[in-house]
Design a protein that fits this description.
The complex is a heterodimer. Chain A is α+β, with helices and mostly antiparallel strands. Chain A has seven helices and 31 strands. In chain A, the strands form seven sheets. In chain A, strands 21-20-24-17-16-27-30-29 form an eight-stranded mixed beta sheet, with no helix packed on it. Among the domains of chain B are: 156 residues, no CATH class; 184 residues, Rossmann fold. Chain B contains 33 helices and 13 strands. In chain B, strand 3 and strand 4 form a beta hairpin. Classes of the chains: A alpha+beta, B alpha+beta. Chain B: GO terms for molecular function: dolichyl-diphosphooligosaccharide-protein glycotransferase activity; metal ion binding.
C-alpha cells in the first residue's frame, strides 16, 4: 500500500560466510532508508526468499551508530514477522519498526543481522579422507527488496582464498578471500540475480542435532548444569577408508575437513566439570580457568569426519549467588540460554530448568520466542517432585546465547523439608527398633500352646538343675572313691574320714536342694511325662549314695582293723559290682533325660 | 578348687559385672563389625578413585547389559528374553541360560532406591554391588566362624575376609560378576548349615535352603555346596557323630534345596539329572538308613537290636545297591552324560587342556602357580595349618566342617585359578581361628604373669606383637593388591611415565565409533573375548561372545581369522558380517592382543575344521611372526588385519609385544578396507568390501557422467529469476 512510495538507499550488503561458523552464514545488511513519499512511515519490510527463510535462525535489526562508537549497547529494533498483501507468496517478510516515523525526505540508517543455518551445501557430497571439502553458497547479487534500491553492493567473505568457482557478473571483483559484487544502482523492486560460490571450507561443521540442557537449582548453593549433546559433522560425507596412520602423520592434509575438538566457554567459577558419554568417562579434555571465564576443551572419542556422529554429556556446577537473584519477593534465575560451545549450530535445543521442590508462580522471560511447557521431575528424596520449566527452540545459533530469566516463589523453610524428613525417618526407625526389642510379640499369651511351652521351658530349667545336682553328687562319689585310693596308697585313715565327713555334708546339702525341685516337678502337669524318670533317677542315686557310703565305711573299717588289702577287696567286691551296675543305670537315666 | 566358695560369695557382683561386660562386648563387637563392613566396602573403591566408576572387563559388561534389560523391561520379559544381537544368526536365550541372582539383586537394589526416590543410574548400582556384598560376606564370615569358635575368632576372620586379595580381585567396584554376590551366598549358606547343625532348628534349616537357592541363582559354583555338605554329613556319620540335629541340617536342605534349585531355569532338571548332584542324593539315602538304625536301636532291647542290625544291614545294603545302580543308570542315560567339562577338569586337572581347547584357552581356568597363592592369600597360607590344628582342639561338628572345607578348597584351587576364590573364605576362617586362639593364649599368659615377673610377659608380648606384625604385613599387602594389582578396569589402561599419566582408552573409542557410525543392524565379527563388550557398549550384533556355548560357531570365526583373505571374506560374508574388529597391541606394547591369542583361534578352528592345522602356523614348533614365520601365518587374515600398513609407522614394522620385526611388511588388502583405527592402534575395524562389479570401466564412466550432468543442470535451473 504505502511502501512503494519509498525510495531506499542501500549502501552495502555484506554477506559474510563467516570464518568462525561452520554451517552458518551471517548476513549483515547495512541500510539507509529514505522516505520519498509524503506520508510518515514507521515500518520497513525485509524480504527473504523461501529458501533462506527456512534456514534463518536469527534476525536482528539495530540502528546504525557509525563505526567504532559502541559506547552503550545498542537497543535492537523490534522485528516482527509480517504478512503484507499484494506480495509474492514465495517470499517471507519481516517488518522492522523504526524508532520514530520517517517524514518525507528523512533518512534513517540501521543494520540488519540475519543468521542462516545449513545454507552451505557440500559439493561433492562425499569425499575421501584426503580430499578437501568444497561447499556451495547461493544468494542473489541484487538485494531482494519490495522497495526500489538506489545503490547496493554485495561482498562475500570466504574463509579461504581457494575458490573453486563463482558466478561472474558485471562489476565483480575478487580480493583474496572476498568477492565483491556491485555497486549496482537504481534497481527496481524485487530485482534478483542469483549467484553461486563454490569454495573450499575446512571449518568444523559441528552440528548438534539435539541438545538437552538441564539446569537444576539447589538452594544449598549450587546450580548444576548438565548438557547432553548429539553431535554430527554436517559437512561432506566421508567415504572409503579411514587411515589412522595418514591422519596422525599429516592431520592437516589427510583429514583436513575433520574436527578434533570443541571449545566450551563456561561461566567463571564453574566447578566439578565432567565430560563423559554413556560408556564412561572421556579422558581427552582440558580445563583452564581464570576469574573471567572457564575454558573447557573437549575432544570427542575419535576425530569427527564428515557424517560421523557422536554423543556425549558435559556437566558442571556453578555457584548459586552468581545466577540467582531476588526481586520483589520473587527469586529469579538469570542464565544463558544456549550451549557454551563456541561455533556450534543446534538443530533442536531443549532447556529444562529444574526448580527446587515447592516452587510456585513460575514464569519465564526470554528475548526471543520459545516453545514452553512444564513437567515435574522426581529426584533425591522428593515427595511430589520438582517443577521443571521446559523451553524448546529449533535452529539455535550462538547469537541466541543470551540471558533468560525464570521467576518463581520459593519459601526458605522448604529447604528444611528433606533434612527433617531424613531425621524423622531415622528417628522412627530407631523407635521401632526399641519397641521391637522391648515388646513381646508372641501371637497370643493365653493360648494353651504358649502356656504349655512356657511351662515346659520352666520344667526343662528345673530338670537341668536336677541334673546338675545329680552330677555334683556323682562327683562327690568320685571324690570318695579317690579318697579310698589315697587311703590304700598312704594309709592315712584320718584324711579319709575327713573326706567322708565333707562328702556327707555336701550330699546332705544337695539332697536338701533337690527337695523343692522335686516338689515343683510333681506339681507341674507338663512334667508328668518326665517325672517317673526323674524320680527313678533320684532313687537310684540315693541307692548309689548309700552303697558308696557302705563301701566306704567297710573299707575304712578294714583299714582300721588292719586287715590285708586282699581281704578288704574280697569284702567290697560284691558291693563294687552293684555299684558299677547302679552307676551305669544312673548314667543311662541321665542321658535319657538329657535327650528329652 | 577354690572357685566354688569364691563364686558363692561374689555371685551378685560377678553377675552384674558379667552382664555389663557382655553388653559392652556386644556393643564393641557391633561397632567392630560395622567398621569391618566399611573397610570391606572402601578397600574396593580404589578402582573408582584411580580410574572411574565404570564396569570392568568382559563378563561384567554382559551382566550390566542384562541388568539394563531387566530394569527397562521387567522380570517377565527378562525370563523370556531371546537375544538376537549375539551369536548371530543363532541368537541366545538369555533368560534360560543365565544365572539370574546377580542381575536380580542389582535390579532389586535399583528398583528399591528408585521407589525411595533416590534416582541412581543402573550403572552406579552395578558398580557398587560387589563392594556392598563383600561387606555382607565379611559379616557372614563373622557369623560362620562364631558358630565354630566363638565371637573372637569370628571378628578376626571377618576382618581377614574383608581384605583378602583373592576376594578383592573379584569384587572391586565395577567388577560386576556373579562371584561378587556368590561368595556371600556361599558363606551364608555354610553359616546357616552350621547354625542348624548346632541348634537343630527347623527354622534355620529352611533359611538354609533359601540361602542355597540364592546361591544356585547366583553362580555355577553352587555345586561346591551341594557336594561339600554331603561330604561333611558323611564324615559325621562315619565318625559316629550322627544326631537328630545333623538330620535336620541335611534332609530339608536336600529336599527343599533341590526343589528350589530346579526352579532356576538355567539349572532346571540338571538339579536331579547331572552327576554333580549325585553325591547329595546318595548321602540323603545313607542318612535315612542311619536314622532308621538309630531309631530301631532306641526302641529295641540290645539283644533284639543285634538281630535287627544284621537284618537291616543286609536289607539296607541291598536297597542301597539297587538305588545306586538305578541312579548310575539314570546318570549314564541322562542327556549330559554325567559330568560337564568344567567339573571334569576339576577332578582331572589335565582334562580340559587335553580335550576342550575352548575351556583351556581361558586364563582363569589354568592351574595357579605358587606365587599366585602368595599373591592371593598372602600370610593366610602360613596361618591355615595352625587354624586346622586349632579346629581339632576340641573337634566339634562345626569345626570338622571347617577342616573339610579348607581341605577340599585347597584341592580345587590347585586345579583352577578361578577357584582361589572359594579357598579365600576358608583360609580366612581357619586363619581367623588360628590368630584368635593365639591371641587368647598369649594375652591370657600376660594376664597371669603381670602381677609377678615381667620378663616372661615381655617374651609373650613380643610374640603377640609378632602376631600383630604378621597381621600388619598382610594388611599392607592387601591394600597394595587392592590399589595396584586388582583395580584396573582393563577397558581403560594407564601407564605412568615421566611426563605424567598416560591413558589408553582405545577400546571405548572403537566401541563408541561403532555405536555411532555404523548401522544399528550391522554385524561385527571379532574373537569371542570382545563379544560381550561389543554388544554392551557398541550395541551391535556379534557373531560369538564370551558365553562360548557353541564351539562350532567359535571355530568358524577362528577358521576365518586363520584363513587367507579370500576364504575369510567368504566365511564372513556367509555370516552376514559387515565389520571385523581386531585388537592389536604391537604399536604400544599391549600384550593381550589377538596375535597372542591367535594360536587358540587356530586350535579351536582346527578342532572343527580339520583343514586348519596348527603346525602350519608354527615354525619348528615355535610361534613367530617375524621373517621366519610360515607363509600360512603370514597370509592369514589375522596377521594381515593386525599389521596392515603397520610398517609405515616407523619404517621397520617393529612389533613391541613380540619384540621383533614382522615378517611380511608390505601388502594390500583386497577384500577388506580399513574403516577405523583407534588412537593407539589397539583396535582396528575393517569393513568387508562388497562384491566387485564385473564391468568396471563402464560403471565408472557412467558415474562420472551423471555427476557432471547433475551439477550442470543445477546451475542451469538456478539462473532463472522466479520473481520476474
Amino acid at each position: 500500500m504505502k511502501s512503494f512510495r519509498f525510495c531506499f538507499l542501500m549502501l552495502t550488503i555484506a554477506i559474510l560466510a563467516s570464518p568462525a561458523l561452520s554451517d552458518l552464514v551471517l548476513s549483515k545488511v547495512d541500510r539507509r532508508v529514505e522516505n520519498a513519499g509524503p506520508e510518515k512511515e514507521s515500518l520497513v519490510l525485509l524480504a527473504f526468499p523461501e529458501q533462506q527463510a527456512k534456514n534463518m535462525a536469527y534476525l536482528m535489526a539495530t540502528p546504525h551508530e557509525g563505526k567504532g562508537k559502541v559506547k552503550n549497547p545498542v537497543v535492537a529494533l523490534p522485528v516482527e514477522a509480517a504478512n503484507p498483501k499484494d506480495m509474492p507468496a514465495a517470499l517471507t517478510f519481516y517488518s522492522v519498526s523504526l524508532p520514530k516515523g520517517l517524514a518525507e525526505g528523512d533518512s534513517f540508517t540501521f543494520d540488519v543481522l540475519a543468521v542462516f543455518t545449513h545454507a552451505l551445501r557440500p559439493i561433492p557430497e562425499q569425499i575421501t579422507q584426503a580430499d578437501i571439502q568444497l561447499v556451495l553458497y547461493q544468494d542473489s547479487a541484487h538485494y531482494l527488496s519490495p522497495y526500489a534500491v538506489k545503490v547496493q553492493s554485495l561482498s562475500v567473505k570466504l574463509p579461504d582464498s581457494r575458490i573453486e568457482s563463482y558466478t561472474k557478473l558485471e562489476n565483480t571483483k575478487i580480493h583474496g578471500s572476498e568477492i565483491k559484487y556491485g555497486p549496482y544502482e537504481n534497481l527496481p523492486s524485487f530485482s534478483y540475480s542469483p549467484i553461486a560460490v563454490h569454495f573450499e571450507s575446512n571449518l568444523p561443521f559441528a552440528v548438534a542435532q539435539e541438545l538437552v540442557r538441564e539446569i537444576e537449582i539447589s538452594h544449598w548453593g549450587n546450580v548444576q548444569v548438565t548438557e547432553h549433546y548429539k553431535l554430527i559433522h554436517g559437512g561432506a560425507q566421508s567415504k572409503g577408508e579411514f587411515s589412522r596412520l595418514d591422519f596422525l602423520a599429516r592431520p592437516n592434509v589427510r583429514g583436513a575437513s575433520a574436527f578434533r575438538y570443541l571449545v566450551a566457554n563456561l561461566p567463571p567459577r564453574a566447578h566439578s566439570v565432567y565430560y563423559r558419554d554413556e560408556i564412561g568417562n572421556i579422558s581427552t579434555s582440558h580445563l583452564r580457568g581464570d576469574s573471567k571465564k572457564t575454558e573447557l576443551l573437549i575432544e570427542p572419542r575419535y576425530p569427527m569426519f564428515g557424517g560421523w556422529r557422536t554423543a556425549f554429556t558435559i556437566g558442571y556446577g556453578l555457584p548459586l549467588q552468581d545466577f540467582l537473584y531476588e526481586s520483589d519477593g520473587k527469586r529469579f534465575l538469570n542464565i544463558t540460554f544456549s550451549s557454551p560451545m563456541v561455533e556450534l549450530v543446534i538443530d533442536a535445543l531443549i532447556v529444562k530448568v529444574v526448580l527446587p521442590e515447592g516452587s510456585s508462580d513460575i514464569s519465564v522471560a526470554a528475548s526471543f520466542p520459545v516453545e514452553q511447557w512444564q513437567e515435574t521431575k522426581i529426584s533425591h528424596l522428593d515427595i511430589d517432585g520438582r517443577p521443571v520449566v521446559v523451553l524448546k527452540k529449533t535452529n539455535v545459533v550462538p547469537q541466541h546465547n543470551q540471558f533468560f530469566q525464570v521467576y518463581y516463589h520459593f519459601s526458605q523453610l522448604s529447604m528444611l523439608r528433606e533434612p527433617l524428613m531424613l531425621i524423622s525417618g531415622f528417628f522412627f526407625f530407631f523407635v521401632a527398633c526399641i519397641v521391637y526389642m522391648h515388646a513381646d510379640i508372641s501371637i497370643s499369651k493365653s493360648s494353651a500352646s504358649y502356656l504349655a511351652k512356657q511351662q515346659w521351658e520352666e520344667v526343662q530349667a528345673v530338670i537341668q538343675q536336677v541334673q546338675n545336682i545329680i552330677s555334683r553328687c556323682l562327683t562327690t562319689h568320685d571324690n570318695l572313691e579317690a579318697s579310698l585310693r589315697d587311703l590304700s596308697r598312704t594309709g592315712n585313715i584320718q584324711a579319709c574320714k575327713a573326706a567322708r565327713k565333707a562328702a556327707d555334708g555336701l550330699l546332705k546339702e544337695l539332697s536338701k536342694e533337690l527337695k523343692p525341685l522335686l516338689t515343683f516337678l510333681q506339681s507341674s502337669p507338663s512334667a508328668a511325662q518326665v517325672l517317673p524318670k526323674v524320680e527313678e533317677l533320684v532313687a537310684k542315686e540315693r541307692e548309689l549314695q548309700e552303697k558308696v557310703m557302705v563301701k566306704h565305711s567297710t573299707v575304712v573299717d578294714g583299714y582300721e582293723k588292719k586287715l590285708g588289702a586282699r581281704d578288704i577287696e574280697n569284702r567290697v567286691a560284691l558291693q563294687q559290682q552293684k555299684l558299677t551296675a547302679l552307676r551305669q543305670e544312673v548314667d543311662d537315666l541321665l542321658e535319657f533325660i538329657d535327650e528329652i | 578348687m577354690a572357685a566354688p566358695e569364691a563364686s558363692t560369695a561374689a555371685v551378685p557382683t560377678l553377675y552384674t559385672n558379667n552382664t555389663l561386660r557382655n553388653a559392652f562386648g556386644g556393643v564393641l563387637s557391633f561397632f567392630i563389625l560395622l567398621l569391618i563392613g566399611v573397610l570391606a566396602f572402601s578397600i574396593r573403591l580404589f578402582s573408582v578413585i584411580k580410574y572411574e566408576s565404570v564396569i570392568h572387563e568382559f563378563d561384567p559388561y554382559f551382566n550390566y547389559r542384562v541388568t539394563q534389560f531387566l530394569t527397562k523391561k521387567g522380570i517377565y520379559e527378562f525370563w523370556n528374553w531371546f537375544d538376537d544381537r549375539t551369536w548371530y544368526p543363532l541368537g541366545r536365550v538369555i533368560g534360560g541360560t543365565v544365572y539370574p541372582g546377580l542381575t536380580l539383586t542389582a535390579g532389586t537394589i535399583w528398583w528399591l532406591l528408585n521407589s525411595l526416590n533416590i534416582p541412581l543410574s543402573v550403572e552406579t548400582v552395578c558398580v557398587f554391588t560387589a563392594p556392598i556384598f563383600s561387606a555382607f560376606a565379611s559379616w557372614a564370615t563373622y557369623l560362620l566362624t562364631k558358630e565354630v569358635k566363638g565371637a573372637g575368632a569370628g571378628l578376626t576372620s571377618a576382618v581377614l575376609l574383608a581384605m583378602v586379595p583373592s576376594y578383592i580381585s573379584r569384587s572391586v567396584a565395577g567388577s560386576y560378576d556373579n562371584e561378587a554376590v556368590a561368595i556371600f551366598a556361599l558363606i551364608f549358606t555354610f553359616y546357616l548349615y552350621l547354625k542348624t547343625l548346632n541348634t537343630g532348628s527347623l527354622f534355620y534349616a529352611t533359611l538354609n535352603s533359601l540361602a542355597y537357592f540364592y546361591m544356585v541363582c547366583s553362580w555355577g559354583g553352587y555345586t561346591f555346596i551341594i557336594n561339600l555338605i554331603p561330604m561333611h554329613v558323611l564324615l559325621c556319620i562315619v565318625t559316629g557323630r550322627y544326631s537328630s540335629r545333623l538330620y535336620i541340617a541335611y534332609a530339608p536342605l536336600v529336599v527343599l534345596g533341590t526343589l528350589l534349585a530346579a526352579l532356576v531355569p538355567v539349572v532346571g532338571f540338571n538339579a536331579v539329572m547331572t552327576s554333580e548332584h549325585f553325591a547329595s542324593f546318595l548321602v540323603f539315602i545313607i542318612i535315612h538308613v542311619v536314622a532308621f538304625v538309630y531309631y530301631i536301636k532306641g526302641i529295641l532291647s540290645p539283644k533284639m537290636f543285634k538281630v535287627a542290625v544284621t537284618l537291616v544291614v543286609t536289607v539296607g545294603l541291598a536297597v542301597c545297591c539297587a538305588v545306586i545302580a538305578v541312579l548310575i543308570a539314570l546318570v549314564a542315560s541322562s542327556p549330559t552324560k554325567g559330568w560337564s567339562g568344567r567339573s571334569l577338569s576339576l577332578l582331572d586337572p589335565t582334562y580340559a587342556s587335553k580335550y576342550i581347547p575352548i575351556i583351556a584357552s581361558v586364563s582363569e581356568h589354568q592351574p595357579p602357580t605358587w606365587p599366585s597363592y602368595f599373591m592371593d592369600i598372602n600370610v593366610l597360607a602360613f596361618l591355615v595349618p595352625a587354624g586346622i590344628i586349632a579346629c581339632f582342639l576340641p573337634l566339634s561338628d562345626a569345626s570338622s566342617f571347617v577342616v573339610l572345607y579348607i581341605a577340599t578348597s585347597v584341592y580345587f584351587s590347585g586345579v583352577m585359578v578361578r577357584l582361589m576364590l572359594v579357598l579365600a573364605p576358608a583360609a580366612c576362617i581357619t586363619s581367623g581361628i588360628a590368630l584368635s586362639e593365639a591371641f587368647d593364649v598369649l594375652t591370657g599368659s600376660i594376664k597371669f604373669q603381670l602381677p609377678g615377673v615381667t620378663s616372661n610377659a615381655e617374651v609373650d608380648a613380643g610374640e603377640t606383637s609378632s602376631d600383630t606384625s604378621e597381621a600388619q604385613t598382610d594388611e599392607v599387602h592387601s591394600v597394595w593388591a587392592a590399589a595396584e594389582a586388582y583395580s584396573a578396569p582393563s577397558i581403560v589402561l594407564t601407564t605412568r611415565s615421566r611426563d605424567g599419566l598416560h591413558v589408553f582408552d582405545d577400546f571405548r573409542e572403537a566401541y563408541a565409533w561403532l555405536s555411532h557410525n555404523t548401522d544399528v543392524n550391522d554385524k561385527v565379527a571379532s574373537w569371542w573375548d570382545y563379544g560381550y563388550q561389543t554388544t554392551a557398549m557398541a550395541n551391535r550384533t556379534v557373531i560369538v561372545d564370551n558365553n562360548t556355548w557353541n564351539n562350532t560357531h567359535i571355530a568358524t570365526v577362528g577358521t576365518a581369522m586363520s584363513s587367507p583373505e579370500r576364504a575369510a571374506w567368504e566365511i564372513f560374508h556367509s555370516l552376514d558380517v559387515k565389520y571385523v574388529l581386531v585388537v592389536f597391541g604391537g604399536l604400544i606394547g599391549y600384550p593381550s592382543d589377538d596375535i597372542n591369542k591367535f594360536l587358540w583361534m587356530v586350535r579351536i578352528g582346527g578342532g572343527v575344521f580339520p583343514h586348519i592345522k596348527e603346525p602350519d602356523y608354527l615354525r619348528d614348533g615355535q610361534y613367530r611372526i617375524d621373517s621366519q614365520a610360515t607363509p600360512t601365518m603370514l597370509n592369514c587374515l589375522m596377521y594381515k588385519l593386525s599389521y596392515y600398513r603397520f610398517v609405515e609407522t616407523d619404517g621397520k614394522a617393529y612389533d613391541r609385544v613380540r619384540r621383533t620385526e614382522i615378517g611380511k611388511k608390505y601388502f594390500k588388502l583386497t577384500h577388506f578396507e580399513e574403516v577405523f583405527t583407534t588412537h593407539h592402534w589397539m583396535v582396528r575395524i575393517y569393513k568387508l568390501k562388497p562384491l566387485k562389479n564385473r564391468i568396471r570401466g563402464k560403471a565408472k564412466k557412467s558415474k562420472s557422467k551423471t555427476s557432471s550432468t547433475s551439477s550442470s543442470k543445477r546451475s542451469g535451473t538456478k539462473k532463472k529469476n522466479p520473481w520476474q
